[in-house]
Amino acid sequence: MELHTNSTFANRGNSYQVTCKPDDKMQSDGKFRSIILSQFCGVCIFILGLVGGILIGIFAYHGSPNSSRDIKCIHSTNMDYAAARDGKNYSQISTTISTIFRVSSSAENVSTESSSISCNACPVRDPINSVSSPGLFDPLSTEEMEESFSALFKSGVIPTKDPPVTFYKNYVQYMSLQPPNKQEALRFLQKQGNPPGRFAKVHVVRSGIHNPDCMIYKVGPLGRDGAQVKQLLADGEAHINTRPKDLFEALMVFEFLKKDMKIMEQLISESFDGANFMDDMYIFSGNSPFGLTSEERKIRFNLAFKGFGNSEIMDLFDLLPLQGAVIASSLNVSHWFATDYYYLNQGPFKTAKDLMNSYNNGTIRKLQLPKGYVKTIRDRIVPKRDMSLPVREKADTPGARTYEPAGARYTINGYNISWMGWNFVLSGSQVRGPSLFNIRFKGDRIVYELAFNDVSVMYAADNYAQNNVIYTDATYGILEGEVILGVDCPEHSSVLKIATWNSRTATPIDTSIVCVFEVDGEESLWRHKGGAFTGGQRERHLVIRAPITLGNYDYSLEFHFHLDGRIVTKARASGYIQAHFWDVRNKHFGDDRSFYPYGYRISDFHVGSIHDHTFGFKVDLDILEQNNTFKLIHWKAGNVLDALQTKSNVTEIPSYYLFNQTRYIEWETLYREAGLRIDMENQKFWTVVNTNKQNKWGNSRGYRIIPMATGAQNFDDSFLPMRALSYTKYHCAVTKRKDEEEFLTSTFDVNRMMEPKGYLDLMINNESIVNEDIVNWISVGFLHVPTSEDMPITLNVETGFTLKPHNFFDRSPVLDLPQVTNTIEPSEYERMPKFDQCYEKM
């Protein structure tokens, strides 16, 4: 009998096969053996042969002790594995194999010794615990949204509960949690009062009433019988034409323009590579603002190529030089009209017929895209692997990754998250984005509310539809998107769902929009090595990340919690840029046609439009209690007397100073509400302190606000939209907290910029902010001049700010954590927790 044991191993794209052929054939000695004894011996020999074959196979594969060896631990139960290089599937790995050895290339000299790693799975602990009822700050559940919708229907705000939803009847656009009154919430949190109840804030487009408008309602308390509906705006306060663009209007504009596109069929076909409007194109009608006053509704549009099949990818790269406007001030489409047609910046033409007359009689320049251009669109806009390029060395093997060798160290109860002394509640608004409430560290409240508020984007371009394009993204609803595991977050992340309202189907949707995970910072939190002491701690932190999609752009909004009491808030941007058409004969381009005032040429026919992104946050710090004070610490340089006289009446420079120049700090209390900007020539620390609470050394306990490197607004107040966007003028504005001053922008003001009604400058009205409950409105961002590296998609750009302890503790807050310590005389020794090698379950 011949036994064959075959094992195949993946190694950097090569396969190694080990065949063991133990000779178990028995030679008869001619003596009679009983059948039973023969069978017994055969079984014994089979077992010995199998064991020997395996040992021989391992030795044949593993080689001598001096050979180069790399050992990889793989799941011992039946699983599917992909080879690192070619993606081939290796299925049904035997459960009897506990360790698989992978041969390394001899040239790499990875190891000179053989070793064995126990092939155990990493411990898994599901950190998410369900709760029976939502907490004080939890985002609205789908059930609460349905309850709110029913209450609106019963009160007559919504005419019907059943689809289809139409543009001509009142419909719900957004739903979010209405946070409770702060005083009531704090009394409940301090066990001194009853829960204040949960309420929904609902945005309704009231297109079905006699005088149409946009309205916001407060609905609740939820979860009890008879939720009440309260109107939060006066009738007509937000005109119907201040509404954001939505799919209803986009479809109406598309249908309305069909007849004009038919009139221009020849121009479209000849100019744009034989394209057909209905099959190959869409109308981008989202260039806001739609009006400078409430009554105006002027929709500037661009003809554009479709990105994928019949879907609008929001590929704002392939916008074409055929533009115009739809005057849609009335809800009655029969009153609409199209005007201001431009072709290659030539115009305006009052009607499509006027443009075609000039096109046909040869009085305007013409464009003719290369034949076959339309067929290249997908290849140009899809960020896929370029198969014509060689793969970078080692790029086809798995990269480094973070895993949890002892299971998750955080706990999530509903939306209440705890980790390493931190505790807070995750919340979120469909309009404003993610937020955190009641942030505590080691039992002390640091922040009552840390909430994303808005992001504004201002574009510049040399054409009719895209000059002075301004978006305030809260107008369109920020909390849209879905986590891509393995891209946005590690595969072992905990993914939380937050409900949003679908206005088209009149139903709530639970979306996997937030991920939670602990990350290895891959650096030291602190370290020192020298003399008689060696020590340090590894940096790790918890990440709360919400990847969202807003049309062509993608944002990642995230909060990082560190072991030393820091909170780092970040905003990242990626996605497709908004470009405009590159016309080689545009007289505004000058002689050098590679760039011009509004950007660089980045493809055959497009310029990346310059723009900025300004992210606004609401930061309600409560350092141990509500009453706090904002203090500026000036970082100064001057003569020695200037420094000493900040604290004393000294009149002579002490003789021990080398120079009569020094650095020093000077303290200033901000007594009144104000807006602050970063000044690199006169640098300051921004701190929020509790002057009623001191640390051991007599310093007021507080936190410092540290913006990352950020862009700055260079428009002055004469720029018409600046009142509505006044938050972009400041990097930090400090105001006295009021429940009615919820946000730093209004969702309606972008479409009524000559008459804005809700903006940050309105809140800065000289009130006292010393020893008061104050709010810091923090604005950070970046300037974007798109370059060829932004094609086809923009790589992440980052901004943000840090909240850092400032005399909050008596000494370093990380001394309650295991660390590395080695000392001599006397000897002290400590190490961080050990862990066993394990594989991560996928």
Automatic annotation (TrEMBL):
Contains 1 topaquinone per subunit. The chain crosses the membrane at residues 35-61. Belongs to the copper/topaquinone oxidase family. Residues 402-815 form the Copper amine oxidase catalytic domain. This is Amine oxidase. The keyword Transmembrane helix applies. Its cofactor is Cu cation. SUPFAM superfamilies: Amine oxidase catalytic domain, Amine oxidase N-terminal region. One of its GO terms (biological process) is amine metabolic process. Residues 167-210 form the Copper amine oxidase N2-terminal domain. PANTHER family: AMINE OXIDASE, COPPER AMINE OXIDASE. GO terms for molecular function: copper ion binding; primary methylamine oxidase activity; quinone binding. The active site is at D473 (proton acceptor), Y553 (schiff-base intermediate with substrate). Keywords: Copper, Membrane, Metal-binding, Oxidoreductase, TPQ, Transmembrane, Transmembrane helix. Its EC number is 1.4.3.-. Topaquinone (TPQ) is generated by copper-dependent autoxidation of a specific tyrosyl residue. One of its GO terms (cellular component) is plasma membrane. The keyword Nucleotidyltransferase does not apply. The modification 2',4',5'-topaquinone is found at Y553. Pfam families: Cu_amine_oxid (PF01179), Cu_amine_oxidN2 (PF02727).
